[in-house]
Every structure is written in structure tokens, then in C-alpha cells.
Amino acid sequence: MTPTSRLMLATLLGTSLASTARAQTAAPALIDRCTASTCVARLTAPQLLAEAEKLVAAGRYREAKPMLAALANVPALKLETRFLTGFVTAKSGDHRGAASIYKSILAEDPRQTRVRLELAREMLAMGKKQSADRQFRIALQDRDLPIDVARTIRSVRTVIRSQRAWHLDFDFGFVPDTNINSATGNETVDSVFGPLALDHDARAKSGIGETASISAGARLPIAKKVSMLVDLDAAGTNYAGTAYDDYQAQLAVGPELRVSDKLSFSAQALGAERWYGGHPVSGQVGSKLGGQVTLDDRDRIGVQVDIRHTKAWFDDSYSGWQGSTYLTFERAVTKNLVLSTGLFAHRDWLAADAYSNKEFGVIAGFGGELPHGINFGLSGSVSRAKFDAPMWIFSADPRKDWRYNLRATLGDRHIRVLGFSPQVSISYSRIDSSIDYYSSKRTRFRFALARYF
Hints:
Layout: H1 3-13, H2 17-23, H3 30-33, H4 45-57, H5 61-71, H6 78-91, H7 95-108, H8 113-125, H9 129-139, H10 147-163, E1 166-177, E2 188-189, E3 196-197, E4 207-221, E5 226-238, E6 246-258, E7 263-276, E8 279-294, E9 299-312, E10 320-332, E11 337-350, E12 357-369, E13 374-390, E14 398-412, E15 421-433, E16 440-452
Antiparallel strand pairs: 1-4, 1-16, 2-3, 4-5, 5-6, 6-7, 7-8, 8-9, 9-10, 10-11, 11-12, 12-13, 13-14, 14-15, 15-16
């Protein structure tokens, strides 16, 4: 382990810089060995770095700064120099400047765990606990992390989670869409009366709309192991005119019990509403129950059960109960990449049996952080839906669907425009139905600026 690595580890563990200096076996700093008022020495770049490390370890940051500035243009020592510069900047009280230096290192090489831990410390110093927790979580995936360091990080994350009060994510942009009304692309559909021609309004339409979404949440401690969760999610898309405008919002409130550092349960009451075409179309009330267990630093299992009652104002045949269950497994493949898989089941008990159905499927996702601040995500699902009763106008047999969904997202948090980062996504959905009228394809692009508070 190099002296710089020892210094990184020492700062993480909270040991004093004095003890770090004692751990180094090198002679006193060169400037301490100078006896004349003017001292001239010829040093190689590695020797100059070693002198700077001695001064930093001794807390003599002002004297180390000129040496680090001189090393800034030495490519072979770029990492060590930038790290020490960030450390000196932090010790000078400029936490924002230090965080910026650490981010620039990670943007080029996200595998630098020691740098990531220092960035987390600076985030904590600036009061950005959620950002710090994210950096600690990624760092824990490093298999070479010393056991005592990993234990310390887990303890810090527990404290952060217990103290985190709120989060807020917001984005806005525009969406080119091949099927804004989620309709079939067929010109005719089969029925018991023979082929039926569909007019223009009943077929798929393309368009470009403006979109925005917000996700906010608060965790309010009410007891030692109990917090009150408040979650708000809202999204909307506006197209030309109002016929296909789509807006929805959901609010969920309820307690979370943390049984241990690895096991937690939650129960929330929820309410949701949707507006389509300029009119309210449905309202929902219900509850969702969740459980999560962390198996180790790399694996986690989650369960969620969602039950709600829907009131459909546009057609009472769609009113009734809905229930969903999700079982998911997450694994950190590397310290920067996470794989998730799962199963889900959904049941609609609606006023009309022809619209009631059972759906079973699988979901999978893969994503994480790449060099240069790039984040990406890939996800998809495949499901089979079977309806309870036939729609006699189309067929004497109940409807059956195969449903496919794919989504890819790419963003760059290293780029900031007034605090917002660019993000682009593409989603594809397809329904292959036994009834042609319900078969559809949809491709949706989304270009947005996002900000995470």
C-alpha cells in the first residue's frame, strides 16, 4: 500500500494525522532539514510527491499547496496529486471544492473506492446525507474493502438512514411518441359480425408532448425504530390540444419499522387520481405493504403487496378492486453495477367480468454508473394476462394477452445546466392480444433535464 493509500485509509477511519505521520518511516520533510534562508534541492516528481505527503500528514497544508501545484502537470502522478489536493482543499474548509475534485476523479475512474469514501465525507459535511449514503452504498461493493472499514461504513449508513428527512427528484422535457393514445395500429379488427373498420380516432396516433415528473418523500422519526413515511409521485404529459393529455398523482402515508439494520417493514395508506383528455377518469384508495431484508453487502430481497379500490368515472364497468404482489432480488454485480430480477402477479376484480383479469410476469433490470459521470439503466418485463369472461362483440372466448415492456435510460450527472443533468430514455411496449382491437405497439422517446435533491 502506498503512503497515499495509507493516508486515504487513515482519513476514512478517523485516525489523527499525527498517527499517520508516525506510521510513515520516512525522514523529516525536506524544508525542515534546510538550515539556510534559501534552500535549493533537485527532486524527481515521485520525491516531490513524497515530500508533499509528509506535509499533508503533518497538517501543514499551506506548505504542501505549492508542491501539489507543481505536480499538477505530471500525468503519471495525476491521481495521487488530485487526491491530496482534494484532501488539502477539504481541510481548508472548502468542502464544495473538495467534492468537485473527488467527483472529477470518479468521473474518469469510478473504481477508486478511497476517493469515493472521501467524497461521501464531504457530502456529509455539506449536509447532503442522501448523496453521501449513495456513495457509501457503492463503496461497500468493493470486495477488497477491509472488514473494519466496511463495518464503519454500515454503521454510518444506519445513522444516515435514521436521520434522513426528505428527498426530492424532479425532471422535465419532451417526448416523441408513436402511439399517444395507446390504440391499435390496425385499420380493421375481427368481430362476431365480421371485419369492422376503425375510424381515424380509434387508431394509433403519433405526437410530441411536453412532460414533467416529480418524486418526493419524507421519513419522519416517531420512535427509536419507527418512522412515518410520506411519499408523493406525480407525472404528466401535455400534447397539442387536450384529447390525449395524461396526468396522474399518488400520495402514500404510513409507518416504517426497522427491526434491525438488515430487516424493515412498512405499511402505507394511499390515494391516487388520474386525469386524461382534460377530465378526471379514475380515483383510487388503498394500501401497500412492504418488507425488505438485506442478505449481505451485495444482495437484497424485497416484497411489496398493493391493494386498492378504483372508481372509474368514464365507465363504471372498470370500477372495482385491484391487487398486486412483487418479489424482487437485487445483487451488486460490481461496486458500480446492480442487477435486479423478480416476479409479479396482478389481479383485477372489476364490475364487468370481461374486464377482470389475472396477470403473471417476470421483470429484470441492470444499471449503474460508468466512467465520466454516465449513468445507465436497462429494464424489461414479460407477462401473460387472462380475462375472466369473453367480450361477445369480438369473440366467444375470453381475451388473452402477451405483454412486453422494454426501457433504456442514459444520463450524465457530470454535466450540469443550472443544477440539472441531461437524461434520455427510450421505452417500447407491445401487447399481442387474442383480440386484434387490443393489440398495440408503442415507442416513446424522452429527452429531459433532471435534478436530484
